[in-house]
Amino acid sequence: MPSRADLHTHSTYSDGVLTPRELVDLAYRRGVRILALTDHDTTDGLPEALAASRSYPDLLLIPGVEMSTDVPGNEVHILGYFMDWQDVAFQRELARLRDSRVTRARRMVDKLAELGMPVSWERVLQIAGDGAVGRPHIARAMVEAGYVQSVNEAFERYIGRRGPAYVEREKLTPVEVVQLLQRFGGLTVLAHPRELMDQLDSLLPPLKEAGLTGMEVYYQDYGPEEIETLLGWARRFGLLPLGGSDYHGLGGPQQREPGDIPLPEEPVQELLELARARGRLLPS
After folding, report:
1. How far is 43 from 95, CA to CA, in rounded Å?
2. Which fold has domain 5-69+77-86+172-277?
């Protein structure tokens, strides 16, 4: 049975395939009643998502964002919830990060051409539409061109972190992102930590000190053993064990539909209580 909450989803405003309204409609049909839209480095889809959510009086739409950060040898993604997303200074910071995404994407397209796999930059921009340009848009262009069979293959062979067409981009550190989101009233959660297992011992203490609220424990294709291990880490550092489907609509064996995660109700309610205590949520 799908969870009533999904705290990690994407729309066409970053690298998802559904518009915010379509995403809200799909999530509601699937039984989701607490939904966070967490597009990459942008909140531009929130007005549409919030307007769509008003069609469903029993649906809570949480304003969110997913921000990429860097540590040696790896990326760390931080989810922010309930931040003052309309603040001009916050939007200025997001715009700077989106600009770095465009520069990075253009360089990756150039690298693919050098590897004998030219894709049209104009086509990448068409696929991105109004969204923040990202690697999934390049991957979809590669699938269209016949260089790979799937988005997953594009990442695994060419544009993933260890791929020959990968390019770094400007990022903040994880602590800087937590502090930034905190400054604008946000509650912060470490996203998809399975890939960071061997770094959690050094990563979590400074993040917790900076104000990290939780970490994803219930995520996409995480199995029972992985969930139990991550629960142990969450308990050790006093973090809320949260999660989401990371829905993009791109397909693939590990992809999940909105709400298709075993996220319990209790930590979600604790998150809402924290938001309420900060004045970020209307009283129930």
Report:
1. 10
2. TIM Barrel (3.20.20)
